[in-house]
Each structure stands twice: as structure tokens, then as C-alpha cells.
Amino acid sequence: MKKILAAIFLLSAGFAQAADPLAPTGRWTGYSSGRAATPPMGWNSWNAFASAVDEDKVMGSARRIVDSGLARKGYHYINLDDGWAAKRRVADGHLMIRADKFPSAANKKTPTFKPYTDKLHAMGLKAGIYSDMGRNTCAQAWSATDEDLPKGSVAEREVGLHDFIEQDIDLYFREWGFDYIKVDGCGLRDFGPNSAKVKAGQARALDPIMDLGAISRTDVPGVQGLFRRVGAAIERSRPNGDFVYSLCIWGAANVRAWAKDVGNTSRTSDDIAPAWGRLLVNYDSAVHRALYAHPGSWNDPDMLYIGAGDFDADHLTEARSHFALWAMLNSPLLIGADLRKTPDALMDILGNADIIALDQDAAGNQATVAYDSSDLQILVKTLGNGDKAVAVFNRGSGAIDVNLQATQLRFRGDAPVEMTDLWTKKQVSFTKETQLRVAPRETAVFRAHGTRMLANGVYLSEQPGQVNPAVDGVTRPVADPAIFRTAAGWGGTRGAGDRPQYAGWGGARADSAPYGQTLQVARKTFAAGIGVLVNSRLEVRNGGHQRFTAQVGVDDSATDKANAVTFSANYWRNRIP
Ligand code: GAL
């Protein structure tokens, strides 16, 4: 008989009890539409080509994906990013393709991507497209030149979804045959009356409803409503459910808390750049968010930048770290390199089947942080067969000697642990603890087998993919700059620098209190458990376990202990899908 043991600690914040959202439903309410039982894998044009994308470039990478065997390993989605649109035909709102760049679209009166998606499908691949939730795209907001942007009148340049949601979605999924859409958000934030493009008469003003730097200037329900409408339109246009819906608003509008209910992947930070510091920023935006990912909906710290800058063939340590960390986070694995030119050493990293298997493990548990310090982190993830994946990540610039302990893996310290290094394939066996040295920027990654600390079960925090913070107690997002900072990668050193950007964080954490403290009740600390704010409701999917046991209490870090807290649990047998 298996059992689950959960330790749940509530922080009392003194808000009035809101009865309705806390009432249990007996259902799993996390997003489960589309085809993302495991994180999507494939390729995207943006990091390699930005808006200067064309059919040859895309097909060249698609061919290499097939020829190199990466497709067989799961890389299926070939995603066109910003830059494909020529204009919107004003008479009927139909979107026009840059047929000069996509010749297979050109041989019809109205260009169509159908031959292009047919070709990808015939190669055994899937096709992805890009749009924006506003009237204009991000390249239209930010591009320094006009060269690759839509041309024509202001109305013709409005290639974003905003006023055409149902029409455009139907065109993409039903008529053109795409299987994946990334929906960006610059159109909702960058076209206020003072924007340069609006002032220059190139774009119509759209009062921003989203501000990356200020939740107070963001209409969260408005943004969420638009994204839900797109999701509903996709389900209508693809009734067989063969789609991936990818949200790209970089952590704004409190999306880190609600994307798990709305789409298949959601960006947690601003754009990645081929620079180590930038990798850290993007990784940090997702690493404490394990409870906000589950099979069907994943945190997205952005595409892989393996193949450029700090992650090119002269920086294999950094490239390997990038890959291993993204796999531990259950991030989408979307290659961002021009694969026509990618050296074999990097192809080998992208093709490491043992590490891909961690990302694609059916249990869908994002790794949690077992050890955390400024320079070193140990991430642990529970795999479907009970093994653990372990990543020992040196963020800093000096080598670090590490004592890795069985208990950090929730394995018993008095029984042997067998580990395989997934880069070198070397086997290690140890009892209690083992020593290893990690080089600067290195991530050692292992698959480990041992004896569970809980003989018959698992802690809830070992299976975050089966826990949904349906209500996470955040009644009003509050700024907590110590936790999350996203930096604009292109800012140089002008101005005041990149101030902390906070747009809502969410209040449930695995193995820590919501604001990062050690779980502790009445001075007793707990290594395993879930930390939530008061007024929270957790849904737990229970894969065949017989018993649920919880120890609950108010954490010592709570700031307001005067109010009473009620804990309640409900159990539905066989009713949760
Ligand atoms: C950004 C997005 C990038 C890319 C770009 C296109 O907002 O984060 O991944 O899609 O827009 O202009």
C-alpha cells in the first residue's frame, strides 16, 4: 500500500475568509487542453534570425532536425516567430504572408501557409506560428528598422490578434494547418499615446492594459480575459485538441499565478540573451515555481540559446548547464540556433537522450530546490519510476566542493544510492553522502536510485506536478523585489539600470514558506512540505495512493498570528480525472 504524507503550513495574513473560491470542487482545475502532457520540444526562428526569417532558413533547420535524429528524440515543433506577416488586407481582415520570403506561400492569389505546413507534416514535424495579443507585434514596437515589418496603412499594419481573435485563430489552425501558437504581448503595453511608433503615425494608440514594471498599472482580469478568449477560439478551431498554446507576457499581469489554468506554456521572464547573467535571470524566474507547473501547463524561462555567445561551441560547460537546467525545470526545449551551421559538439548536447528524458518524464514534476545558496544550488526532481534526477549547479566563478546527501534526495541515509552521471555515464554508489567538485558554471546531472525516506509513499513536495494551487492566497499581488528581478537584456549601462520588475508572484512553494524561509512550526523545522498563504486551496491528484496524511500548522514566519486558521481536507474517490 502506498501513501502520501503531506506537511502543509499556512501563513496567516489576516485577510477575510472568501468562502467561494476556497470551497473544494472535486475536480482538477489546472489546464489540460492541447498536447502538452510533457513540455513541447522543437525549434524557433527568433534567437537565430529575429524578423529576418525566411523559408530556406526554417526548412534548413527543420531538415537538420530530421537528418540528425533530433526529431526522433522528440524535437517536433518548428515554430515561426515574429517577421512572417506582410499586412492585414483591410477589405476582409485576412492576414497576408511575406510571400517574397516564403515562396511556397506565393503561388496562390491569396498567399497561404498550407503548402508550408503540409511540407513540415510530411517530414513528421509539427508547425508553429506567432502572433500578438494586441494589434501590433513586438518587432513592430521595438525593431530599429522598418525592413522586416508589415507595410502599408496603419490598419494594414495591425497584424495582431486583438480585433480579430476568432478569425485569425481559425485561419492559423483550420485553414493554414498550424499546430502551435505563441501569443506575445507587446501590443498590450507598448502602443500608448506616447509611444514613438504612435507619434510617428505608424500605429494606432491602444491604451496599455499591461505594464511589466507595475502591477498597479495592469488590468489583470482584462489581460487574462483576452488570453482565455484565444484559448477558447483555439479549442473551437482544433476540436481534436491537437494544439499547443504558448503565452508570452514575460511574467507580467501576474501571469505566473494563472497561466497554469489558461495555456500550455507561459514565459516567466523577459527575453533570454546569449549571456550567462541573463541565463541566471531567466532560470531564477522559474526555479521556485514548481507548484505552478503540471502535465499540460509548463513554466517557460524562454528558448534555448545554445549555439551563440556564452553558449557556443567554445563554451560547452555553459551550454551543458543551460540544457540540463532547462530539462530540470520541465521547460519547453525549443532550439534557437541556425541548425544548418550548428557544430556537432552542440548537437550532441541537444541530443543527450538521458537529459531529454528528464524533461519529458511522464510524471511531469518540475525540480524543486533541495539546497540553495548564492553560488550553488541542488535541484531534485522525482521521476515516474521513483528515481530522482539531481542537478548540482555552480552559478559562480570558482570551483565548489559539494557534499551531496541522500536525504537531500529524500532517500534514506543508511541505504546505498546508485547514481549515473548523465554527461559522462559514469556510475557512482554511495551511502549517506558523496563528494563531488563542480567547476565554475558547471551543472553535474545524475539519475539516482535509492530507498525512499517514506517507505510507502512520497511527500507532496516530491510530486509538484500533481499539486495545483487552485487558490494560492494572493488576494492582492504585493511587490517583493527580493524574490524576482528581470532585466532587459539589451539595455546597456545607460539610465538607472534594471530595477526590480514585479508583477505578481504567487504564494505556494515546495519545501519552503511562500517567501523563501525554511518551513518551521513551533520552532520545529521541516525539510519537506508545502508553504502556502492563508486563504489557499490546493488540489492534489492522487496517482494510485491509498492514504493521505497531513501535518499542518501556522509557520513561525507568519507576520499576523492573531487570527485563527482553519484547515480542511476533502477526498473524492475516482472522481478526479
Ligand atoms: C518578444 C518575445 C520574443 C520574440 C519577440 C518577437 O516579446 O519575448 O521571444 O517572440 O517578442 O518580436
What does this 3D model show about the protein?
With 577 residues, the chain is of the alpha/beta class. Helix content is 19%, strand content 23%. The protein has helices spanning 19-22, 46-49, 55-67, 114-122, 138-142, 165-175, 196-199, 220-237, 255-258, 276-287, 316-328, 344-350, 353-359, and strands at residues 3-11, 41-44, 77-79, 85-88, 95-97, 126-132, 180-184, 244-248, 265-267, 298-300, 333-335, 368-372, 376-382, 388-394, 400-405, 416-421, 427-431, 433-438, 443-449, 457-459, 467-472, 508-510, 519-521, 524-526, 530-533, 536-540, 547-554. The strands form seven sheets. An eight-stranded parallel sheet has the order 10-9-8-7-6-3-2-11. It has a six-stranded antiparallel sheet with strand order 12-13-14-19-16-17. α11 runs parallel beside α13 (353-359). The longest helix has 18 residues, at 220-237. The two termini are 21 Å apart.
Keyphrases for this structure?
binds beta-D-galactopyranose, six-stranded antiparallel β-sheet, 577 residues, eight-stranded parallel β-sheet
Task: Write a concise synopsis of the structure shown.
This protein is of the alpha/beta class and 577 residues long. It is built from 13 helices and 27 strands. 19% of the residues lie in helices and 23% in strands.
